Amino acid sequence: MASRGGAFALTVVLCSVLALALQGGAAAAKRPLVPAMFVFGDSLVDVGNNNHLDGCNVLCKANYPRYGMDLPCHSPTGRFSNGYNLADRLAQRLGFAESPPPFLSLSSKAADVATADNTERMMAKGVNFASGGSGLLSGTGQPMCGEVLSMAEQVGNFTSLVQMLENIDRRNKLARLIAKSLVFITVGSNDLFEYAGGVASNRSAPGRNDTEFLQGLVSNYTAYVKDLYAAGARKFSVVSPSLVGCCPSQLKIARAVNDTDPFGCFGLANNLSGQLYPMIAAMLDGLSRELPGIKYSLADSIQMAVNFVISHGNITRDHACCGSGAFGGDSVCNSTVPLCPDRSKYLFWDWFHPTDAVSDITAHQLFVDNGTFVHPINVHQLVAH
Ligand SMILES: *[C@@H]1O[C@H](CO)[C@@H](O)[C@H](O)[C@H]1NC(C)=O
Ligand SMILES: *[C@@H]1O[C@H](CO)[C@@H](O)[C@H](O)[C@H]1NC(C)=O
Ligand SMILES: *[C@@H]1O[C@H](CO)[C@@H](O)[C@H](O)[C@H]1NC(C)=O
Ligand SMILES: *[C@@H]1O[C@H](CO)[C@@H](O)[C@H](O)[C@H]1NC(C)=O
Ligand SMILES: *[C@@H]1O[C@H](CO)[C@@H](O)[C@H](O)[C@H]1NC(C)=O
Ligand SMILES: *[C@@H]1O[C@H](CO)[C@@H](O)[C@H](O)[C@H]1NC(C)=O
Ligand SMILES: *[C@@H]1O[C@H](CO)[C@@H](O)[C@H](O)[C@H]1NC(C)=O
Ligand SMILES: *[C@@H]1O[C@H](CO)[C@@H](O)[C@H](O)[C@H]1NC(C)=O
Ligand SMILES: *[C@@H]1O[C@H](CO)[C@@H](O)[C@H](O)[C@H]1NC(C)=O
Question: Which one has a higher pLDDT value, 18 or 126?
Fold first, then answer.
């Protein structure tokens, strides 16, 4: 077991070295459109933070095969994908080789973080704080994963880095860097999974109030955006939870409780996500009036998913490419469960996550969409001025 862990750690290191080499090449060819990118959220954008959490179990880690099989190094890194994920694919549109590195890979050497120079170098390149399994509520993810970094912790880690640097008298340089950088947030799905799963496992659920639950999510979300703004962030790209009830893991629940929507997916989960989107849109609209200089780009990932399925009629959307059991949705992808022959023909890579091909198309839409799915401006426009 120990030697297996060692081998994975080594491939993770090799992958990062390769990525750095690629990044050097890309930087020489083309300057990125923003100084740096800061990523927050869940497993859709985690690039390996959970690898460093001892209390996080195998269900919420992706540092073993077949995760990462289509990366340049063909090895797992902690990304919940066959290849890159949405943070990587958006970073590539901005001119980076991939997502910035995971916070915990930079900060695990505690002494490094303590020196201002290292922290400054870290911030200048961007940092990914995202943690698979996490959500807007502080307890989300713990029942399934054990330990995760909640959004509150991710935002707290970012603001403490900023505060540390403010003390070394380079405030203006740092403030400019952060204001021009892109903050990318993809969170909320896990809160919906846990809530809807709880309702499904206890159908009576007396006293349940969906509106109150969703308002709680948005109230936390508002606090996080305000905290990031207070630390100097100004440009926010936000992806709302998509048709979460259509994940392979949810299809069995939908059948078990006889709650399928017109897509054949878990009705309650999709209903919650459908209610949440306009609430997030209203939150950002409100904040844009309240906080001077803030700009945002919000993706309606529900409509993006609906459009994707319509325009890719032949893609398999009711079965994970890599997974066991009904719909391939019983548990994680690993080296012993069935694997589909052609990853590019599947919407889902595993029980919860899209394939690299789908993340790439999503990132493209975030970047260039002309107002059909991304409001009020796309990410290219967001970073342009
Ligand atoms: C977010 O939600 C949790 C409940 O899980 C709450 O305890 C916490 O204080 C909230 N955080 C913020 C910043 O509102
Ligand atoms: C990140 O946040 C967590 C939770 O607040 C905290 O325990 C940890 O010390 C922070 N890490 C660093 C390096 O600041
Ligand atoms: C169902 O929910 C109610 C109220 O929350 C609780 O009292 C009850 O113990 C739950 N039943 C089961 C089987 O979990
Ligand atoms: C649910 O909560 C909302 C917000 O707190 C409240 O306005 C509404 O009356 C509640 N609904 C029920 C059925 O209790
Ligand atoms: C499942 O739900 C549908 C529509 O809500 C209903 O017509 C059907 O009778 C239900 N089936 C079972 C087995 O409960
Ligand atoms: C969610 O379900 C409620 C109650 O069934 C319904 O009134 C509402 O229109 C649904 N909302 C969405 C966005 O699906
Ligand atoms: C749909 O995909 C299947 C399996 O990949 C393939 O055999 C079939 O020819 C495809 N059909 C169309 C219309 O593209
Ligand atoms: C892969 O997952 C399956 C199903 O969860 C499990 O039975 C099997 O032991 C796992 N294989 C490895 C190599 O971990
Ligand atoms: C956006 O692009 C789509 C597809 O290219 C086009 O059909 C639509 O008219 C455009 N909308 C606007 C507002 O430009």
Answer: 126
The question of whether 52 is a catalytic residue gets the answer no
User: Distance, CA 192 to ligand 4 centroid (Å)?
Assistant: 18
User: Which of 195, 210, 212, when mutated, tests ligand 4's pocket best, judged by the most ligand atoms within 8 Å of its CB?
Assistant: 212
What is 6-15+30-196+216-241+273-302+356-384's CATH number?
3.40.50
- Please indicate whether residue 112, judged by its CB atom, sits closer than 6 Å to ligand 2: no
pLDDT digits (tens, 9 = 90+) for 245-265: 999 999 999 999 999 999 999
How much distance in Å is there from the Cα of 77 to the middle of ligand 8?
Answer: 19
Section 42-66 average pLDDT? 98
* Residue located nearest, by CA, to atom 10 of ligand 9: 370
Q: Are 253 and 265 in contact (CB under 8 A)?
A: no
16 is catalytic: no
Give DSSP secondary structure letters for 261-329.
-TTSSBHHHHHHHHHHHHHHHHHHHHHHHHSTT-EEEEE-HHHHHHHHHHH-TTSB-SS-SB--SGGG-
Amino acid, res. 193: F
Residue 241 carries which side chain, given as an amino acid letter? P
CB neighbour list of residue 114: distance below 8 Å, 6 or more residues apart: none
Summarised one tens digit per residue, pLDDT across range 160-209 is 988 888 777 555 788 889 999 999 999 999 999 999 999 999 865 778 99
Count Cβ atoms within 10 A of the Cβ of residue 18 and give its class: 0-12 exposed, 13-18 middle, 19 or more buried.
middle
Residue 318 is among the residues annotated as catalytic for this protein: no
pLDDT in tens, 121-134: 888 889 999 999 99
129, 154 in Cβ contact below 8 A?
yes
| Cα 61 to ligand 2 centroid, rounded to whole Å | 19
A 10 A CB-CB count for 121 gives 12
Beta-ladder partners of 40: 185
* Nearest ligand to the C-alpha atom of residue 374: 9
Farthest CA pair distance, the chain: 61
Task: Enter the DSSP assignment of 16.
Answer: H
Answer whether 238's CB lies under 8 Å from 43's CB.
no
Residue 171: its pLDDT value, please?
58
Q: Which of 187, 188, 190, 197 is nearest to 141 (CA)?
A: 190
